[in-house]
């Protein structure tokens, strides 16, 4: 079992949980009769302005709900066991999912700029999504050179090797 893969998995799982929590909060507020976001509404930071804009839905689905789905699907891809498996399909799926997340983030940031306001909770989701992309990149850099067992061997203490003379 690779300690590096386990560390990546723990960090990524923590980010997924944070992103899921933020997305659930945004979803609940989206569907509440009178949203009560805990952020100001008189400055550039205006969650109500952002979450009630035309950018707050995509094909009739609130983007907050899409965020919940994104993090639920991401969960098994980013668990420590998935990192340790070294499965190429899981690695490709993780890359694809991180890419989809970042394309969505770029679109939503464009929407915030167009609306002229920033939602702090949305920004939190954007940072978590970027963090997952960074961990996916680091994970590929760490794990691409070999199997999880080989990476684990690099994490272990050096072992002294004593050679014996041939024929002796």
Give a brief outline of the structure.
The protein has 168 residues and is mainly alpha-helical. The chain contains 7 helices and 2 strands.
Task: Explain what you see.
- The protein has 168 residues and is mainly α.
- It contains 7 helices and 2 strands, in the order H-H-E-E-H-H-H-H-H.
- Strands 1-2 form a two-stranded antiparallel ribbon.
- Helix 1 (3-31) packs antiparallel against helix 6 and helix 5 runs antiparallel to helix 6.
- 27% of the residues are buried.
Low-confidence stretches: 147-155
> What fraction, in percent, of the residue positions are helical?
55-70%
Estimated share of beta-strand residues: under 5%
Provide mean pLDDT, rounded. Answer: 84
Question: Nearest-angstrom radius of gyration?
Answer: 21 Å
Order of helices and strands: HHEEHHHHH
Strand order of the largest sheet: 1-2
Number of helical segments? Answer: 7
Based on CA inertia axes, which overall geometry fits? elongated
Distance between the termini: 37 Å
Q: Structural class, judged by helices and strands?
A: mainly alpha
Care to count the β-strands?
A: 2
Q: How would you characterize the largest beta sheet?
A: 2 strands, antiparallel
